[in-house]
Write a structure and sequence with these properties.
Protein name: Acetyltransferase
Structural class: alpha/beta
CATH superfamily: Hexapeptide repeat proteins
Shape: globular
Strand content: 25-35%
CATH class: Mainly Beta
Number of helices: 6
Organism: Oliverpabstia intestinalis
Order of helices and strands: HHHEEEEEEEEEHEEEEEEEEEHEEH
Keywords: Acyltransferase, Repeat, Transferase
CATH architecture: 3 Solenoid
EC number: 2.3.1.-
Distance between the termini: 52 Å
Pfam families: Hexapep, Mac
Length: 217
């Protein structure tokens, strides 16, 4: 099985040092894609704050999927870019990092706080394999209306269900179901999202706008 197929199937792989001609060509192709993404991220991160149209054009040119209603604060860093699929009304704050050796699927109306890392790639625990430079990559799925708090990390193969909240500083190592609040290292469910959350936005602080009408609108 050749390099690109091994990556696609979640198997251990090496980015460099292949001897098979097909693997060598695939290695060169992937290296060129990574370098291209670095160039594009440099361009994006050095646009002026007022250049919204240019920012969107840059994202549409590199990402696997991106709508007009996507905004990512600079700086942002990705490995390939073309493996990142963003839904509508996506927002990410400063210092988003996406290691997208494998696909990352993010739903609609997702909010991501500052300094969040989404990483599809890991290394085997056994030290010999790391000495050999082995990687593995597993896809990440983030549902609709998810909020990921500041300084959180989402690790390979994780799925986060619709509407869920990942508390600040969490390390998400396993799947998180829909409609829950989860936090910690490792990230664990602490409670469900309930009707009380419709009425109180933070602790005992009550929502002061007509939330039912706002939701319907």
């Amino acid at each position: 099985m050749h390099l690109e197929e091994r990556i696609k199937n979640g198997m251990p792989f090496y980015e460099h040092g292949h001897t098979d001609p097909i693997d060598i060509e695939q290695e060169k192709k992937l290296e060129a894609q990574r370098r291209h993404c670095k160039e594009v991220m440099f361009d994006y991160n050095n646009t002026r704050p007022s250049e919204d149209v240019k920012k969107k054009e840059i994202l549409k040119g590199i990402l696997g999927h991106c709508t007009d209603r996507v905004f990512i604060e600079s700086p942002v860093h990705m490995s390939y870019g073309n493996h990142v699929h963003l839904g509508d009304q996506f927002y990410a704050n400063f210092n988003l990092v996406i290691i997208d050796d494998m696909d990352v699927y993010i739903g609609n109306q997702v909010m991501i706080g500052p300094n969040v890392t989404i990483c599809t790639t890991g290394h085997p625990v056994y030290p010999l394999y790391r000495e050999m430079g082995a990687h593995y990559s597993l896809p990440i799925h983030i549902g609709n209306k998810v909020w990921i708090g500041a300084n959180s990390v989402v690790l390979p193969g994780v799925t986060i269900g619709d509407n869920s909240v990942i508390g600040a500083g969490s390390i998400v190592t396993r799947d998180i179901p829909a409609n829950v609040v989860s936090v910690g290292n490792p990230c664990r469910v602490i409670r469900e999202i309930t009707e009380r959350d419709r009425e109180y936005y933070f602790r005992d602080m009550k929502v002061d706008f007509p939330y039912t009408l706002r939701e319907e609108g």
